């Protein structure tokens, strides 16, 4: 029986990928190269600094480690301008209903996100109080597909991996959950999330 549920944030609870995209595109424009939505797929679930490295690779740009930190900071400032304007209307269909349903069944809930802005976003959209634990980019050092974030999620809930389920939209996240030994429900395209135990189009399919 499932006792705990661990949710990814971007792509599962809210669609912040569109704001990450706009902020990365803003940087690419400054460097003078095209950054497309297809390119943006490669950044899903990936840490901020690793995302920057992928963007630089796409643009064929080479900068120092110090400049990388500066650019990552600039991108985040731009991203923050977008997420400052978020409200509950941006919660993905079925997400709030499903979280409430799980809570009524006594299932404990954690967030397992790569984002350092996760708590801020949960507060903006009014879902923070539905989570018993939050494991985010400020708490883990190894990015997905490393299982660290989900193992920490189980521990924070006081549960074993075998008692939990993960909800993930990114390939790297699905891999991370499998490596942690947790049953994983993919959110999105079954042709892409082939490794998931089950795939649904959104949490609205589960309520
Ligand atoms: C999210 C996004 C990634 C982003 C990462 C870090 O992960 O999918 O594109 O690069 O967080 O975000 P930040 O720059 O806010 O720290 P997740 O794990 O919630 O899907
Ligand atoms: Mg995601």
TrEMBL record:
Co-factor binding details: Binds 2 magnesium ions per subunit.
Domain of life: Bacteria
Protein residues bound to substrate: 8-10, 24, 43-48, 51, 75, 113-117, 144
Entry keyword annotation includes Magnesium: yes
Residue ranges crossing the lipid bilayer per the database entry: none
Active-site annotation: 8, 10
Site (Important for catalytic activity and assists the phosphoryl transfer reaction to Asp8 by balancing charge and orienting the reacting groups): 113, 144
Pfam families: Hydrolase
GO process annotations (BP): carbohydrate metabolic process
Keywords associated with the record: Magnesium, Metal-binding
GO molecular function: beta-phosphoglucomutase activity; magnesium ion binding; sugar-phosphatase activity
Residues that bind Mg(2+): 8, 10, 168-169
Cofactor(s) required, per the database record: Mg(2+)
Family: Belongs to the HAD-like hydrolase superfamily. CbbY/CbbZ/Gph/YieH family.
Protein name: Beta-phosphoglucomutase
């Amino acid at each position: 029986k499932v006792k705990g549920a661990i949710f990814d944030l971007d792509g599962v609870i809210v669609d912040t990928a569109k704001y990450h995209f706009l902020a990365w595109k803003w940087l690419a424009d400054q460097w003078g190269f095209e950054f497309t939505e297809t390119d943006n797929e490669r950044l899903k679930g990936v840490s901020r600094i690793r995302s920057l490295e992928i963007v630089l690779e796409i643009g064929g740009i080479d900068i120092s480690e110090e400049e990388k930190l500066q650019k990552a900071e600039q991108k985040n400032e731009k991203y923050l301008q977008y997420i400052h304007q978020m409200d509950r209307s941006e919660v993905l269909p079925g997400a709030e209903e499903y979280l409430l349903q799980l809570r009524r069944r006594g299932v404990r809930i954690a967030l397992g996100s790569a984002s350092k802005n996760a708590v801020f976003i949960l507060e903006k959209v009014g879902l923070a109080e539905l989570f018993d634990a939050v494991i985010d980019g400020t708490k883990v050092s190894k990015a997905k597909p490393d299982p660290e974030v989900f193992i920490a999620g189980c521990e924070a809930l006081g549960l074993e991996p075998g008692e939990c389920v993960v909800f993930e939209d990114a390939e790297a996240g699905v891999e991370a959950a499998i490596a942690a030994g947790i049953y994983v429900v993919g959110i999105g395209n079954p042709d892409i999330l082939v490794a998931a135990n089950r795939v649904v189009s959104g949490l609205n399919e589960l309520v």
